[in-house]
Specification:
By secondary structure, the chain is α/β, with parallel strands linked by helices. It has a single domain, classed as Rossmann fold, CATH 3.40.50.720. It contains 11 helices and 13 strands. The chain has a 7-stranded parallel sheet with strand order 3-2-1-4-5-6-11, sandwiched between helices. It has a two-stranded parallel sheet with strand order 7-10. It has a two-stranded parallel ribbon with strand order 8-13. α1 links the parallel β1 and β2 (about 30-35). α1 (about 15-25) crosses α8 and α7 crosses α9 (about 255-265). The chain is globular.
């Protein structure tokens, strides 16, 4: 049955892909995005070009910190689901401006949970992050692991959002799913993210700076798999639950760069640097729980995903 779904941050990388998938499934999608100039806003405008052509898609430019705007939106529309993707993103910038991250990621999340409570919207999905695991040495990361030691304000705000979600489930019996994303990549990825940035630098013959001397490892998750994980959460989740959504396979920065070199056909100029404050040495998702309860089954390995990303990147570049 078609649902009316609010997607916050819906013009971003993940949000725009999700919106297109939901529209294909005949849902009504309401996108709320503030078009923050953290990166070129024209990228977000391009992200939603296709969705804007669909009569079941509504775009509102606004901020989750604006309580009056939220009150107006929620009074006018009765949503079946809230998928809360909007956030102040970036581990390293959060070290420089922690107050902004607190305001958006914690207070903004609280504002949405309050609207869900007031308007009796029972279904809420919160986009969290692998950053909450901090420097946990036990791998792969399990949802049962302690997450009291995040390494960045960004990670701390995501943990705070998770706690608020649990609180609203406990008090008001909302169905709330917390999805911990593990380094999502693919077409439309933000230009400041590693894979996009490295591809651009290597293609231009410029030096690639690899922190932690290129030895840090990440669990990279392709965008189609993340979107399917969110769709499955809508379908299968009830009550309260925290789920890892990752590929459950790690790769070092040095090996990632080698994959990009192979696909773009150019050698990288590499500069190895010490670790940066806030960066995790390794992320690795245990997805046993998501597989069992959400039927989450990531299909795209890093080799195939990088190939698809670079095909998209080169096509986009040729159109400019």
């Amino acid at each position: 049955m078609p649902q009316k779904i609010l997607v916050t941050g819906g013009a971003g990388f993940i949000g725009s892909h999700l919106a297109e998938k939901l529209l294909k499934q005949k849902h009504r999608v309401f996108c709320l995005d503030n078009f923050n100039p953290f990166y070129d806003v024209n990228i977000k405008k391009g992200n939603i070009k296709l969705a804007l052509q669909n009569p079941h898609y509504t775009l509102v430019k606004g901020d989750i910190r604006d309580r009056n705007l939220l009150k107006k939106i929620f009074t006018q529309h009765h949503f079946n689901f809230i998928i809360h993707l909007a956030a102040k993103v970036g581990v390293r910038p959060s070290v420089e401006k922690p107050a902004e991250y607190l305001e958006v990621n914690v207070n903004g999340t609280l504002n949405l949970l309050e609207q869900a409570r007031l308007h009796k919207i029972k279904n809420f999905i919160f986009a969290s992050s692998s950053s909450v695991y901090g420097a946990n040495t036990k791998v792969p990361f399990s949802e049962k692991d302690i997450t009291d030691h995040p390494l960045s304000p960004y990670g701390a705000t995501k943990k705070a959002g998770e706690l608020l979600c649990y609180n609203y489930y406990q008090l008001y019996k909302l169905n709330i799913a917390v999805l911990r994303f593990f380094t999502v990549y693919g077409p439309r990825q933000r230009p400041n993210m590693a894979i996009h940035q490295f591809t651009k630098l290597i293609g231009a013959g410029k030096t690639v700076s690899l922190y932690a001397h290129g030895k840090s490892q990440r669990d990279y998750t392709y965008i189609d798999d993340i979107v399917q994980g969110i769709i499955n959460t809508i379908k299968y989740h009830r009550g309260f639950g925290i789920y890892n959504l990752g590929n459950s396979r790690t790769i070092s920065l040095l090996k990632l760069v080698a994959l990009i070199e192979k696909n773009i056909g150019q050698k990288a100029k590499i500069k190895k640097l010490p670790p940066q404050p806030g960066d995790l040495p390794k992320t690795w998702a245990d997805i046993t729980k998501a597989k069992k309860l959400l039927h989450f089954d990531p299909k795209t390995n890093i080799e195939e995903g990088i190939q698809k990303f670079i095909q998209w990147y080169l096509k986009l570049k040729s159109q400019k």
